[in-house]
Amino acid sequence: MMPLLAMTAPAGFECLADGNIVPGKPVFRSRLLIGGVLPVGTSMLTFSSFEPGFGFVEQSPMTGMRRWQHERRIDDVPGGCRVTDMLNFQPGMFPGLTAQLVALFFHHRHRRLRRMFGEIQ
């Protein structure tokens, strides 16, 4: 997510597989840091479903959001996989600006995934 945004995690927590994920139960509290340094809020990372290798639905209480739902699907396709992120959120303030920032963030994230893993034609 860097350099745009960082989310803190407990020491030793490297990936979601490291956590004891129970649907509906918070995994941990994360600080949201713009550029990795400027605190802008917190998120109580919570999943309503989690299927390693296939995807998840995250419904985390988050500073500045009345509602945040992030569904990620990972689908096998010829030559690799396809990552799809679907978002449903309701900002507490500045809805237009927030929507633009969320779109920018996920565009950045997918661009980095393509750089790391390549792109399927």
Detailed description of the structure:
- Helices cover 19% and strands 43% of the residues.
- It has one helix and seven strands, in the order βββββββα.
- It is globular and about 40 Å long.
- InterPro entries: START-like_dom_sf.
- It comes from Sphingomonas ursincola.
Topology diagram in text:
Blueprint: E1 5-7, E2 28-34, E3 38-45, E4 47-51, E5 55-58, E6 65-77, E7 80-91, H1 95-117
Antiparallel strand pairs: 1-2, 2-3, 4-5, 5-6, 6-7
In angstroms, what separates the terminal alpha carbons? 24 Å
Mean pLDDT: 92
Which percent range fits the helix content?
Answer: 10-25%
Q: What kind of sheet is the major sheet?
A: 4 strands, antiparallel
Number of alpha- plus pi-helical segments: 1
Estimated structural class: alpha+beta
**Number of domains in the coordinates?**
1
Short description:
The protein is an alpha+beta fold.
List keywords for this structure.
single chain; 121 residues; alpha+beta; 3-stranded antiparallel beta sheet; 7 strands; globular
